[in-house]
Amino acid sequence: MADGNVAEDEVVRICQELIRIDTSNPGDNSGPGERVAAEYVAGLLDEVGLEARIYESHPGRASVIARIEGTDPGRDALLLHGHLDVVPARAEDWTRDPFGGEIADGCVWGRGAVDMKDMDAMMLAVVR
Fold it and tell me: Which of 58, 59, 89, 118 is most buried, judging by how many CB atoms fall within 10 Å of its CB?
């Protein structure tokens, strides 16, 4: 998939790395990796000089917030948002590892590849 397009390559890399963090949300606040994913996202933002803050609605249920100042403080804000949690996946129900982030057939495969870790990766790459 890497064809020399730096922006596309970064989106793919971030998407793969997000998929590899099991952020399954069974609905009872016992998911294993939302905080880990939030820390990963905050690190990506911090690398480019954006102050990212992590908030938890429940221990381990983490959200990341960062603000980019606009050039005209009189204008309304633009909010970009996504989620890092995914519906739980049983590996035996998948033909590929749901948390592998594997590239096959020109696509990134795994839980969250089309909802919503792909979009999170695109937003992060653009912001970076």
Answer: 118
> Looking at beta carbons, which pairs linking 89-97 to residues 24 or more positions away fall under 8 Å?
89/24
The hierarchical CATH code for the domain 6-127 is 3.40.630.10
For residue 106, the 8-state DSSP code is T
Q: Which residues of the chain have pLDDT under 70?
A: 1-4
Q: What are 62's strand-pairing partners?
A: 56
- Shortest CA distance to 102 belongs to which of 11, 14, 16, 6? 16
pLDDT value of position 3: 56
Looking at residue 33, what is its pLDDT?
Answer: 86
> Hey, CA dihedral for 92, 96, 81, 44, is it positive or negative?
positive
In this structure, which amino acid lies at residue 79?
Answer: L
Whether the predicted model's global pTM rises above the 0.90 cut: yes
